[in-house]
Structures are given as C-alpha cells and as structure tokens.
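Example record

The entry below shows one chain as it appears in the dataset: sequence first, then structure tokens.
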Amino acid sequence: MQNENLTEKRVSGELIYDGKVVHLWRDEIELPDGRPSVREVVRHVGAVAVLPLTENGEVLCVRQYRYPFAEVLLEIPAGKLDSPDENIVEAARRELREETGAVGGELIPLGTLYPSVAIFDEKIHMFAAVGFELGETDRDEDEFMEVERIPLSELVDMVMAGEIRDAKTQTAVLKVARLVERSKIKIDGVKQ
C-alpha cells in the first residue's frame, strides 16, 4: 500500500453527539509508528454545490446569514444530501432549483472538495451549471437568502481580494474561470 508509513488505523470509536446534521465521533487510533492516539471526527452525510453560469457570464450567487460566523456571506448555491446514497446530480439540480429557480441545462462536474480535512469527513460535490432556465425558487422553510447576479470575472477579483471567504465558492469560481479561459465551458454559445 502506498503511503503505508503515513496511515493511521482506527481501533475503536464512540459516538459523542448524534445531531441532525453532524455526528461527532471520538476514535481511538493507532499511529503509523504503533503508538495509540485519539481523533475527534465530525461525520457529515455530504453536500453538493453548483456554480450557475448564465450565457452572458454572470454567476447566480446567494447571500445568506451564516450563524457560526454571525455574518451574511456570498456563496454559490449548495446544500446537504438527503441521504448518503442520494444521487449527487439529482441533489445538485434540486439545490439549484430550490435556491435560485434555475432548472434544466447541463451540469459540469468540478470535482469533490474536502472543506476541513483535519476534523470533518464532509465531501462537497461541485458542479457548474450552464444552459438553464429560470423559474420559481422552492427554499426550505428555514432558508432566507437573496439571489444576486455577479460577473464571473468580478467574482474572481473578489476571491483574490479576500472578499469571498467560503471555501466551496472560492474553489468553484476559480475552477470555472480557468475552464472558461481554456475554452472548456462556453459562454453565450461561443467558446471564450
């Protein structure tokens, strides 16, 4: 096995907190050198995030209050999976429709993001959306947000200036900008 000298082995585990969204485990582990240690891990069902890119190069972003930071953040549409075995493409389409009203079009996989590798096992499956139509939103009853259209180039500048602090949004914006730059994603029907 490659990197065997870096691998930690789980010996046992105890569920400390079993919440609606997160599940905190305290695991006894064996370090690569054989010594025992402890890891606390927050388990999460997983999530999807979608960067919706309009035909004129604008991104549909959402502004919402984020309780842990006590501030309103600018983000791309995203949400947790309903179950660990939910189809991620269907989940991405659901979240995009619920938060922005965007339906149809093409979803382009952008990869999987591990947002906080030291303590969370959450995986965020990221997509770009193009060629969609706008309809009605269908937000969860506890979701309050505003949709905003921002040019992709402006979002890149905001990421580089530190104005966007959300990891999934930073990553998706920079990936999509590079894909547009390399003509892998079309805007307005013409490769840029």
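Notes for this example: Residues 167-181 form the longest helix (15 residues). The chain has two domains: 4-44, 47-191.
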